[in-house]
């Protein structure tokens, strides 16, 4: 059996030496070189090659090199192939840092002061306690849960919403469609960290925005496909939302004439909130291969029926 990596030169260089040290008996190939495709049992990629079943007829495990799998066409991946998303510590650490920056920047009026600077205005606002802000995170998975735990340590009132209930000390958990409205009504700063699925595509829309307290803030670190862009512009222009922080868009990058670029109430970053680190990502892949070979559960394996 053999392993194929279809990714960056940095990962290829580092992972090749890691595999040689930890799994010397397993041939390591870097796409487009694959060795005998009949012997390939493991593939790590952001986007696998087309006609996957024909290219690697005996593939057993597909590892995503990112935290999400929405870039994959799961319908084109044989049911026999197990799909595993990246679950290395650097992903959570990066997301915690980004969301904390965005929440603190909104709480302490930093986006407002940046607008004032452009207008040559010097006018301070009273500082208020973090405990007066209710932060709601949509998606309580491997990223959402540690983000909520860190925000709670800073004194924010923290709520989470997902398809199933979670028991996290100091965090109120809302579950399922029946509890979404109550979650939104209790959210001053909404953070989207959900996977993109058929059920969540376009969920950040006008109907949802109207259920938030007037003047709320949106932070989207999930996927651009979660957001209905015209509805966000409506919400900002009517005052239903007072600020948006977007790390993801559709498409990426946005066209040069897109209204998001110059909107005074939108802060844009180029999909940099979190990314897997080559070294720890390689360690996680190696750990999962060993666990798989020993009949154990792999960390990050997705439920194909839900897509995450």
Automatic annotation (TrEMBL):
Keywords: NAD, Oxidoreductase. It comes from Gluconobacter thailandicus. It comes from the Bacteria. GO terms for molecular function: NAD binding; oxidoreductase activity, acting on the CH-OH group of donors, NAD or NADP as acceptor. SUPFAM superfamilies: NAD(P)-binding Rossmann-fold domains. The keyword NAD applies. PROSITE patterns: D_2_HYDROXYACID_DH_3. This is Glyoxylate/hydroxypyruvate reductase A. Gene3D superfamilies: NAD(P)-binding Rossmann-like Domain.
